[in-house]
Amino acid sequence: MKAKGIVNISNMNNPKFDVNLNSRKFPLKAIFALIPEAVLNRTASSGALSNSDLKNIKLTYKLPVKNSYAVKNKQINVNDLLNYWDQWSLEPLTEEDAKNQSKAPIWKAIDGEISVNLDAKGDTLEPVANIDMLLSNGFIYDRKINEIFFKGSYKDGDINVPNFHFVEEEGGYITASGKMLQSGKIEAEADGKINLNWAKTFMTDKSVDIEGDTVLALDVRGTSTNPDVAISVDAERGGVFNNVYFDDLVFIAGYKDQIARLTDVRLVSGGKEAKASGVIPLDSSLGSMNVSLGLSGESLGLVNLFTREVEWLKGSGDAFVNLQGSISDPIINGNLNIQDAQIYVAALGKPLEKVNVNIAMSNHYVKINRAEVVQFSADSKYAAFAIKPFYADTRQAKIKKTKSDEMTKDSLGITNLTSLSIVKIPRVKSFKFPENGGSILAYQLEKLLDTAKKASSQTTLPIKKDKEDYFLANEEPGAGSKQDGTDLIVKNLITGVEKTFKYVSDYAFSKDGKQMVFASTGSKKDKTALNGVFLYNTENGTLKTLVKTKGNYKSFVFDEDSELLAFLGEQSPEKQEIKDYSIYYNSLSLDTAQILVDNSITGMPIKWSVSGDGKLTFSKDGKKLFFGIAPTKIPKDTTLVDFENAKLDVWGYKDDYLQPMQLKNADRDSKKTYLTAIEIFNSDVKIVPLTDLKLPDASLINEGNSNLAFASTDFGNRIPAQWTAGTIRDYYLVDTKTGSRKKIIESLSGSAMPSPAGNYVIYFDKAAGIWSTYNIHTGKTIQLTNTNIVKFVDEENDVPDNPSAYGIAGWTADDKSVLLYDRYDIWEYNPEGKGEPKNITNGFGRQNNITFRYHQTNPEKRFFEKKDVIWLDAFNNLTKENGFFKKSIGDSKNPELVTSGKFKYSSLVKAKDADRYLYDKGNYTSSPDVYVSADLKTETKLSTTNPQQQNYNWGTAELVKWVTPKGFKSEGILYKPENFDPNKKYPMIVYFYEKLSDGLYAYQAPAPTPSRLNIPFFVSNSYLVFAPDISYETGYPGKSAEEFINSGVESLKKNSWVDGTKIGIQGQSWGGYQVAHLITRTDMYAAAWSGAPVVNMTSAYGGIRWESGMNRQFQYEKTQSRIGATLWEKPELYIENSPLFSLPKVNTPVVIMSNDADGAVPWYQGIEMFTGLKRLGKPVWLLNYNNEAHNLVQRQNRKDIQIREQQFFDHYLKGAKAPVWMVNGIPATEKGRTWGFDLTDGKP
Fold first, then answer.
1. What is the pTM of this model?
2. CATH topology of domain 750-902
3. According to the model, what pLDDT value does residue 450 have?
4. Using an 8 Å Cβ cutoff, are 39 and 16 in contact?
């Protein structure tokens, strides 16, 4: 083993590991591995195998050997194959050395440079120790090995060892016999003995200098006088021990012309500590790995296995190590895997070197059912998560109509990621870790049940309490009022010390976790209970009272440096409807919180006040506080009697918004707040409103550090949104010191945003199709783009509106340049318009039909540096393949391919300080799995999702292309059953919406459908499914559907395996409309399923989308319905594109799904279609799922529609019997009693 590192894996509760050391030469003192019940996978120069505790071992040894030690067609005695190591150019052994190994036979090498792989199966008298080995010029020994058989290969030929038979004899020797043959070149008979005992005394304290480029590797296995301690040691030079009991070991290792001494390798009695110079203890099993190397012994690396983040920490002393690796899901086929970790080691003043380590932990994981909302402590030692109640319990409680407070609530789970112990705490309403606060956890309990006999916070963990519970009350559980807070427990998960605070209503940690603020409501039942706001120091346990007056306190927020605190509070009488809020402020130097803002402060507008619904935000530098104010609400007139008042909605033509939208947004609008600023340290105490009723929207610039805010308004332009689908806005800069405003952009249809450093506003003018910048300092506007170079707007736009922009990739540091997308590439523009724009992807995207988009691997990164190498999502528009490229922003080279293939990638994340990436990858045939890799070329699969899929007939997805009657090139996806037979004929279902072919490699889970066709379900049931793309001509959406869908179907019908008489169509929403249109134009489809269709554009045009309250006019004039004119401008187009007017032409059986709570399409559209076809005597059914939305939400309804859809298509496309619901319907009197799924011989 050329590379020497030190890997100590301890306290693992006997995990099983798979370790791969890819060796590199550099000087270190030894390799030390403490691995109980280990599984090793190594690459080395030579070595030994020892101890039956090693269950499944694979070794591959490669080394150059000399020509003088092997003779063709001669016997090689096994006695000559042991321990004569002159091929490694060792210096002669001393007489004492020779004496110690006098019983050991000599090892001689085979001629040539060889790599011999020998597979062995063996049994020991120990409980099940199956040994799989790959060995080159090595030896095998272990106590009680009865039989071993070998097979292997030699370079390009085979070595046949049909009966290399080992049998243990008296005295610890094993007889070996057998024949080795290699392509006629070497024929060797082996006959000899291997001594099992020689190693017990060999080289325990000797020093040997090693010369040459190759160093030795040997394994030491043993136990201390404490039987719980088992060790395995790989060293450059040392001794091999078999079942030797020892407390003290001294190893001396040499490399080339120097000697490195391990003078203090000591196992402390009891096995609790392993002290050694140059040791890397990987002291954990799950979750966090504490990594240290060298003399410092400090924890240097943290790996969080439940998240996608790895932190590297550099230690002090002579050496440091960084361990990198990550994982997203701890449960992978019953195994937990940490893959492709890297250890970087520097020691003894030598240059940095690298050892790759692959570690796989088998059968060593923690599995928590029903867990969600996982959070991790900042030191990665603990995980906390909510555990949902059993569905059966919740279901039963709902059946019994249990009160909300008495319902089964979530539990809290806490996992120690080292020991994997789990604590579960019932009835927890919330929990929080501080962002950077070690292993401190706070959690708040639900209200105690009246029937509770003891506190619900009892756990199986030992609890240490250094004081009495704060605010401890002598009241019965559940006796408090509804307004009372509940118990808050703050726990140090390492020490076990916890404190309980009673009646807590709200709480928050500072960013560093050293402070925790909380509000206590007190209790009406306990007059001695304290209420107010308190600041708890998590380090020393002190408690500071910030406010000691009863009230309602909330919205706690600390500044970036964890030194300042602000919160909202009101002390109004309990029955007062409109509360008077103030903003409180505290710093660590103040003993109590001070009122920073109240309603009488200078700058507060008349009849305005601090809003209790506003968000508090410190500027990044902590100098300003931003908050919300609002017009003071008018209390309800309590003298009015409710039943005597009229109830109505008054619609007015001057209203900015229609009444349905106002009603829909009433709660949101009643809580609307207006951004306001205060300079905390300004002696001139005042607030500065930055927005008001006419300028309602604003955002911070440069994280609030700027003295300007960016505001906008659509005031005066809101009514046209009824038909334009967007608003016209004016944009302003507002001074945070004075409140003065400057309009910088007027009547913009598009988007605008400030740059990260706050020097520019960049905006896109949709009407003109150009990007421009506004210099905040000079007031100068610069047009950046024009159509002379390339279009920066949607080149495939097919709706009757101006095309949208492709967007912004980001900015470089200090706002030096901005990166814009075109259809394929990324362009760099100087925001001042200076110089020519630079295509940083070098036109590679457009040349190769690849669309590049920046992939942000660091969510905290706000801008690019010129030296940055960025990752790019890459989508091939021709092949639909996906992948990644890398590109340096600063050069003009083509992007560098990382990986690309017939997959869909998602969720790529990077370790925080390491070149390790975690991502999902899958395609239609392979469920997306989690992978980890350093370069996305060599990858390790970490998960196996949907393994049950292999038990089912799945399917394949392929891209098909055709030319429409008008000459348009089109494409779509054809899905075939996995067991597809081209000699058979298959029925086919055509599913469509707009364009679907880009999803060629998307996985589709076979879950019950909310509305769309369950493609894998039908494919598995021997249907072909065709998903064609559609492009649209303004004014003629129906004919466009005919042009592309029908022609695509006709092209596929030319294949003998398509049954052209058994083709169905299915679509939902816009797809449902197209289904309805097609069956009025052709009889080529044997069955149709139309979900949520619009069939009468004339009546739908003026309707309401009830989910949002918006009018539907915009949809026909500007967006999806694509008429491009008003109803009174082109009524003929509305009629032509409305299937209702052509229902007499329908001959295709059709099912309509229209739900009475549909918020997108008026469900009476389905009624119009149904009643028309019913009158005409056409076979039609309508499914109305009560109180369901546009797409089904309730799982029971999804399962129901899946059954009906299959029965419908099976009947018309496969000739199956029809179900009762299709033949006889379901009378209202039988609703909820029968579902009509039974098949019958009757005809629909």
1. 0.70
2. Methanol Dehydrogenase; Chain A (2.140.10)
3. 62
4. yes
